[in-house]
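A student in our group prepared the protein record below, which I am reviewing. Here is the record exactly as it was handed to me.
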Amino acid sequence: MPNDPTTQQQYVALAWNAVSRAAQMARQAEDAANQRGRQDQVAPLAAAGALWADTARAYVAILAVLPEPADPTDTDPEA
């Protein structure tokens, strides 16, 4: 896996996207819970939201173990 800022930025973007999807699914589940005739959709929507939340946590866990990107201004290869 490359040790560059782009990789870290990609994982941040993936995590934010997954968080956004989880929130969207939670809102849809809440809407379904409050509408007559849509209560049967609550559990599947909530489950999908939980999967997106798990996905976000996985991306953050990967991001946490990535090494810091190399400093492009560092010219000393021994450092």
Remarks:
- The radius of gyration is 19 Å.
- The mean pLDDT is 89.
- Residues 8 and 66 are 7 Å apart (CA to CA).
- Residues 5-65 form one domain.
